[in-house]
Design brief:
11 helices, 12 strands, alpha/beta, about 290 residues, seven-stranded mixed sheet, five-stranded mixed sheet, Metallo-beta-lactamase, Chain A
Length: about 290
C-alpha cells in the first residue's frame, strides 16, 4: 500500500504490526505525526524520504502518545534536525521525568530513548499543519497521555490507538490503573459525538465505519468489566505474538528484506515489509 495523500501534501503511511502508522506533511517545514519503533528507524527514514522529505529538514513531530511504537524515531530525528516535539502534557511529564514505567517501556522491555519535548498539548487545542487545522481531543484509556486529532473541515480523524477497525488495543491495567477501562469508555463517547467521514488509525488500514468500530470496542470493554480474567488472557496473547515476531521471525525477514530491497527500492520497502507480520499473526484482530 502506497502513501495516501489524505489532505493536500499530507500523507498517511501504513506500517506493520510492530510499528505505528505515521503521517508526513510535505513542505519547506515538514511535520511528522508519530515515528514508529526505534529498531526500525532505517525503514522509517526510507518511508519518509520516499516522499521527498529529508529528516534534517523536519520542523516538528507530533506524538499521539508516548508508547515506544509511536515515538521510536523521535530522538534520532530531533538530533538530526533540531525539530520541536509536541505531545500531551501528561506525556511531556513522563518524558521530562524519564518515567519509563508510565510509558510502558520498562514494563514490556521495549527499546526507546528519551527526547526533548518542546510543547505540551491540552484537550481542545488546535494544531495547525500548513493549511490544515486539527482539534486535539484527549482520549485516555489505552494510554494516559493519549490524544486523537480531528479535522472538522474534511471530517477526518487521526485516531491513533483509541479506535481501530476490528479490535481495540491492549489494556495494561498494571500500569494504567483500574479505572483505565472507564476512561476508555469516556474517550469512545467523545469520538462517537464527532462527524467523521474517514478514520486513520495507529495500526491497520484506514476505514469509514466509525460507529461500528466504536460499538465493537464498547462491547469488548463490557466483556472485560464482566470477566476481568479476559483482560489478562487477551494481553498474554498479544505479548506472546509480539515476542515471537520481534525475537525470531522479524529478524529473519529483516535479513531477507535488506538483501532484496537494498538498492533502488526505497519507495516500496515500507509497504512490502508490513505484510509479513500480518501473515504471521493471521487474524490477531479477531482473537
Amino acid at each position: 500500500m502506497k502513501p495516501i495523500e489524505i489532505l493536500e501534501d499530507f500523507f498517511f503511511i501504513e506500517r506493520g504490526y510492530l510499528n505505528a502508522n505515521h503521517f508526513v506533511y510535505r513542505s519547506d517545514k515538514p511535520v511528522l505525526i508519530d515515528t514508529a519503533y526505534i529498531t526500525d528507524f532505517a525503514e522509517t527514514r526510507a518511508c519518509i524520504e520516499s516522499l521527498g522529505v529529508k529528516l534534517s529538514d523536519i520542523d516538528s513531530i507530533i506524538n499521539t502518545h508516548s508508547h515506544s511504537d509511536h515515538i521510536g524515531g523521535n530522538k534520532f530525528i530531533q538530533d538530526e534536525s533540531g525539530c520541536g516535539i509536541v505531545i500531551h502534557r501528561i506525556g511531556k511529564y513522563f518524558i521530562d521525568t524519564h518515567d519509563d514505567w508510565a510509558t510502558w517501556w520498562r514494563y514490556y522491555g521495549h527499546q526507546a530513548e528519551f527526547f526533548n519535548v518542546t510543547q505540551a498539548l491540552e484537550d481542545g487545542d488546535t494544531i495547525v499543519i500548513g493549511p490544515h487545522e486539527f482539534r486535539v481531543i484527549y482520549t485516555p484509556g489505552h494510554a494516559s497521555d493519549g490524544i486523537v486529532l480531528y479535522n472538522q473541515n474534511e471530517k477526518i480523524l487521526i485516531s491513533s490507538d483509541t479506535l481501530w477497525e476490528n479490535d481495540m488495543p491492549g489494556m495494561t491495567l498494571r500500569v494504567e490503573g483500574s479505572t483505565a477501562l472507564f476512561r476508555f469508555e469516556e474517550s469512545l463517547e467523545k469520538i462517537k459525538a464527532l462527524d467523521v467521514r474517514m478514520i486513520y488509525p495507529g495500526h491497520g488500514r484506514p476505514f469509514k465505519t466509525a460507529h461500528e468500530a466504536i460499538a465493537r470496542s464498547q462491547k469488548k470493554i463490557q466483556n472485560y468489566l464482566t470477566n476481568r480474567e479476559l483482560i489478562g488472557l487477551d494481553l498474554l496473547k498479544r505479548i506472546t505474538i509480539y515476542t515471537l515476531i520481534i525475537r525470531f521471525c522479524f529478524l529473519l525477514y529483516s535479513i531477507h528484506w535488506r538483501n532484496k530491497y537494498r538498492r533502488n527500492k526505497l519507495s516500496s520497502l515500507c509497504y512490502e515489509k508490513r505484510r509479513i507480520p500480518s501473515r504471521l499473526i493471521g487474524g490477531l484482530n479477531n482473537v
